[in-house]
C-alpha cells in the first residue's frame, strides 16, 4: 500500500513541502501526499500588513490550493484539524460550514502513515483585559481584510459628510515587532494615497498612529543597529513610538498602559507575541510547551511519536549548543520544509534522518515606499547592513523566492510581468 503523507497547514512552509513532495514522491507514485487547510487559498503571511493597509490586493496575489495540487501531483482537502488518534494513525477534522451556517463538509477522519503538522501560530494577547473584544489581529487574510474595510469605512464616512470640518483617525498598534513596524509605515503611506484619490476629509497628518512596545526598543528580536534606524524613520513619518509601555487594558475607544497612560484609538491592532493554536495543547499525549508549540527533536519529529513531524511556528525546535528554540520566522519554516522534503524520502527508504540546523541569513524590514533596512549574513561576507533602495529590492526578492518555490522560474517571471503591466491600470491602493 502506498505510504500516505498528510500535511496539516497550508502556510508558506506546509505549502512548499506539499509542492516539493508532490513533484518528487507524488509524481513517481512513491507516496500519496495530502495537504489539509481550513481555507481554499493561500497568501504569504508576511504580506498581511499590506493587505490590512490596502497596498496589496489579496485577490490578485492569492494561490488556490486545488489548482496547486493538480499542477504538482498532490491532493488537497478543505478542513480544520480538531483532534488526533495516534494509535489508529488518524486525524480528526471538524465540520465545515458555509457563510449561512449550513454544513458544507461533515466532521471526518483521515488516515496517515507520516503526519506533518505545520499549522503556524496566532497572536498571543497574553490574556490582556479587553484585547480579544476590542482589538483586531492580523493572523489571517480575513482578519487583514476586516481591518482594511474598517479603515476604509472611516474615510468613506468622512468623505460623505456635509461639513467642511477636517476629521481625524487614531490607530494604535500593540507590538513593535516586524508586523507592527511594517503596518505603521504602510498605514502612513495609505493615508497619503487615500488623500490623493480624493478621500481628503482626513488629511494625512490627521491619521495619528501610535506604536506601543512593552520592551525597551522596537524590533526587540533583531539587532539594535536595525532597530535604531527604524525607530528614527518611524518618528520622521509622524508615528508616535512608545517603548517600555505595557498595555494592561483595552477599551472600546482606548488602550491603557500599566502606568495609567490612556491612548485614544478608534482602530486597535494587537501584533505582540505568538502562540500555537489551542487545539495542539497536549494533543493525544504529545509534548507541548506553555504556548502550545509541539516539542520536536532536531529531526523535526515530535518527542513522543516518530511518525509525527512538526515545523514552523507551531513547533518548538531546539538550537544545538544554546538554550533557545529556533525563532518563529519565515526563513526557518522555509529551511525546515526543504529538510523535510529530503527527510520523508529517506524515511521511505528506511535511512537515518538528518538533523535541522538553523541558519540565520539576516533580517529585512520594509517601511513601505519610504525606506527599508536590514542585514544579510553569509559565510564569506559576515553581516552586511543594508538600507534604502537596495534593502527594499532584497525585501521584495524574499517574496519572489517564495513564489519560485511554488510556481517555478517561468511562471514567477510571468507573474512579475503581469504585476508590472497592471501598475498602469490599477489604483495604488485597494479602494473597496
List keywords for this structure.
single chain, 432 residues, alpha/beta, six-stranded mixed β-sheet, four-stranded parallel β-sheet, 26% strand, globular, FAD, NAD(P)H dehydrogenase (quinone) activity, FAD/NAD-bd_sf, oxidoreductase
Describe the secondary structure blueprint for this structure:
Elements: E1 3-8, H1 12-26, E2 31-37, E3 41-42, H2 48-53, H3 58-61, E4 63-64, H4 65-72, E5 75-78, E6 80-85, E7 90-94, E8 96-97, E9 103-105, E10 108-111, E11 114-117, E12 122-123, H5 131-134, H6 141-160, E13 169-174, H7 178-196, E14 207-212, H8 224-236, E15 240-242, E16 247-250, E17 254-257, E18 262-264, E19 267-270, E20 274-275, E21 294-295, E22 301-302, E23 305-310, E24 315-316, H9 330-348, E25 362-367, E26 371-378, E27 382-387, H10 388-407, H11 409-422
Amino acid at each position: 500500500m502506498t505510504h500516505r503523507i498528510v500535511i496539516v497547514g497550508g502556510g508558506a512552509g506546509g505549502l512548499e513541502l506539499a509542492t516539493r513532495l508532490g513533484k518528487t514522491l507524488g509524481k513517481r507514485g512513491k507516496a500519496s501526499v495530502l495537504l489539509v487547510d481550513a481555507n481554499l487559498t493561500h497568501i504569504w503571511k508576511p504580506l498581511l500588513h499590506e493587505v490590512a493597509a490596502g497596498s496589496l490586493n489579496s485577490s490578485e496575489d492569492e494561490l488556490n490550493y486545488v489548482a496547486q495540487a493538480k499542477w504538482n501531483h498532490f491532493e488537497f482537502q478543505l478542513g480544520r484539524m480538531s483532534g488526533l488518534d495516534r494509535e489508529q494513525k488518524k486525524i480528526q477534522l471538524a465540520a465545515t460550514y458555509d457563510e449561512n451556517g449550513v454544513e458544507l463538509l461533515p466532521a471526518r477522519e483521515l488516515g496517515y502513515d507520516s503526519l506533518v503538522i505545520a499549522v503556524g501560530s496566532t497572536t498571543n494577547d497574553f490574556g490582556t483585559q479587553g484585547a480579544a473584544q476590542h482589538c483586531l489581529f492580523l493572523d489571517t487574510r480575513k482578519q487583514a481584510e476586516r481591518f482594511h474595510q474598517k479603515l476604509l469605512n472611516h474615510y468613506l464616512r468622512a468623505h460623505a459628510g456635509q461639513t467642511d470640518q477636517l476629521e481625524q483617525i487614531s490607530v494604535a498598534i500593540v507590538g513593535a515587532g516586524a508586523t507592527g513596524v511594517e503596518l505603521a509605515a504602510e498605514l502612513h503611506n495609505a493615508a497619503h494615497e487615500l488623500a490623493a484619490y480624493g478621500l481628503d476629509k482626513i488629511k494625512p497628518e490627521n491619521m495619528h498612529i501610535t506604536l506601543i512596545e512593552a520592551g525597551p526598543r522596537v524590533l526587540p528580536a533583531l539587532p539594535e543597529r536595525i532597530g535604531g534606524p527604524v525607530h528614527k524613520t518611524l518618528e520622521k513619518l509622524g508615528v508616535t513610538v512608545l517603548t517600555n509601555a505595557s498595555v494592561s487594558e483595552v477599551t472600546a475607544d482606548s488602550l491603557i498602559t500599566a502606568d495609567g497612560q490612556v491612548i485614544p484609538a478608534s482602530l486597535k491592532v494587537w501584533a505582540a507575541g505568538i502562540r500555537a493554536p489551542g487545539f495542539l495543547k497536549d494533543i493525544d499525549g504529545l509534548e507541548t510547551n506553555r504556548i502550545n508549540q509541539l516539542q520536536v527533536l532536531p529531526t523535526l519529529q515530535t518527542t513522543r511519536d516518530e511518525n509525527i513531524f512538526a515545523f514552523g511556528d507551531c513547533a518548538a525546535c531546539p538550537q544545538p549548543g544554546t538554550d533557545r528554540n529556533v525563532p518563529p520566522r519565515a526563513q526557518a519554516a522555509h529551511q525546515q520544509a526543504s529538510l523535510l522534503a529530503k527527510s520523508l524520502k529517506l524515511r521511505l527508504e528506511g535511512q537515518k534522518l538528518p538533523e535541522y540546523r538553523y541558519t540565520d541569513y539576516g533580517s529585512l524590514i520594509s517601511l513601505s515606499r519610504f525606506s527599508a533596512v536590514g542585514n544579510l549574513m553569509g559565510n564569506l561576507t559576515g553581516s552586511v547592513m543594508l538600507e534604502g533602495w537596495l534593502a527594499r529590492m532584497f525585501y521584495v526578492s524574499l517574496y519572489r523566492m517564495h513564489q519560485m518555490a511554488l510556481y517555478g522560474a517561468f511562471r514567477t517571471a510571468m507573474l512579475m510581468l503581469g504585476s508590472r503591466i497592471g501598475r498602469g491600470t490599477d489604483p495604488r491602493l485597494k479602494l473597496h
